[in-house]
Amino acid sequence: MKRRTWLFATLTCATLMLFFLIGHNIGMPGSGFAGVALALAMFTLVSKKLSKRQLSKSSSEFAITPTKLNKHA
Amino acid sequence: MLDAVVAFFLLGIISQLLGAKLNFPEGLYKFLSMFLMIAIGLKGGIALQQHVDPVLLPMSLAVIAFGLLLPLIAFPILRYVGEFNRIDAGAIAAHYGSVSVATYAVAVSLLDAKNIEYEAYFPLFVVLLEMPAIIVGLILARGSLASINATFVKKELVANQSILLMLGSLLIAYFAGESVNKLQPFFIDLFSGVLALFLLKMGLIAGEQLKKLKRDSVFLVSFGVFMPMVGGLAGLGLGYVLQFSAGGLALMAVLGASASYIAVPAAMKESLPEANAGISITSSLGISFPFNVVFVVPFFIALAQFLRA
Fold first, then answer.
1. Count of domains observed in chain A
2. Mean of the pLDDT values across residues B197-224?
3. Which of A16, B154, B160, B279 lies at a C-alpha separation of 20 to 30 Å from A41?
4. Which residues contact B236 (CB under 8 A, 6 or more apart)?
């Protein structure tokens, strides 16, 4: 996913959570529960994204690339 | 507590996602949307008989300016964050600048259920907000004013079913006087029941659109959620400046938040055939419409009540 898209998605989630927070404070029914559900969904998404990044980073570090092979040769 | 009318929309989405086959007659959907447009127009006309206000003209101009502004907010996000081409960005922006009659009907139904009063002339604003976004979207997509001429405007006005039906029934109710009461048992008393049936169908369509969402449509989902919040806040701001009541504030916010999926797709098909209609429909109907019905409408009603308390 592109960096801009990721940032925009984060901005959207943050705005949405702000709306839920306002909703909860002005007595909108159900907004507290929905806010918690959204926060959980966002946390899952972010952690998945981070773990994917870490995985791809570590796999590129340990991968046997032609340059590494050349060095050993 | 969940509103009974909105619950039918959720029933439609769940049925579709579960793969249940609810056979909805094709012609019935068109009939229901026509019924709602006529009912909204009549309601506005009946209310307008009692309150004709000279401030309506500057208010209408402000509402048209608002309709011109919304696509200008959506376009740069679509173009530079979503990286859509000019044609698709212009077409989607037009959808988000225009309004959804069904979302408006849901808001009216919730306001009526809560006995919150609103200004009588809102159906007029719904009509006024249909057109400007189509023009701005086309200009943004084409990058020039060449395609906008008198023939185009006339064609759009005549071909646009919602403008014709809502404005027509508003004028009929306004000029018909007492005789409009004959229509009340059918168009006004049955409004909530028909809306529930219409929302059931809309839920089925929205569920179908949600299924079409691909795994990499993070931007589209984000945009479909972000734009109603921004448009709603802008509408709320305009309503505040125009000194609307609590109901009026909520309706103005809902008009800003809603995205068209009937009038604009038809107009874009004619005037911008090279645009990808699937993206616009998925975004406006599959994402923004459910989000508006379930969250945005109740949120802005609560916020408007809080601001006017």
1. 1
2. 81
3. B279
4. B249, B252, B253, B256, B300, B303, B304
pLDDT at B192 (0 to 100): 86
| CATH no., domain B4-12+26-308 | 1.20.1530.20
Residues of A in contact with B81 (CB under 8 A): 4-5, 8
Domain that holds residue A31: 3-72
Q: Worst-scoring range by mean pLDDT, A17-26, A29-38, B139-148, B181-190? A: A29-38
* Segment B211-239 mean pLDDT: 87
Distance from CA of A59 to the nearest CA of B (A): 23
Buried b (16+ CB within 10 A) or exposed e, B105-137: bbbbbbbeeeebebbbbbbbbbbbbbbbbbbbb
Cβ(B199)–Cβ(B5) below 8 Å: yes
Span B65-83, mean pLDDT?
Answer: 93
The arithmetic mean of pLDDT across residues B185-198, rounded, is 88
Q: Are residues B219 and A9, on separate chains, in Cβ contact within 8 Å?
A: yes
pTM above 0.90, yes or no: no
- Residue pair B141/B89 in contact (Cβ under 8 Å)? The answer is yes
Q: CB pairs under 8 A, 24+ apart, for A16-21?
A: A16/B225, A16/B229, A17/A42, A19/B229, A19/B295, A19/B299
pLDDT at B249: 95
The answer to whether B218 contacts A28, with C-beta atoms less than 8 Å apart, is no
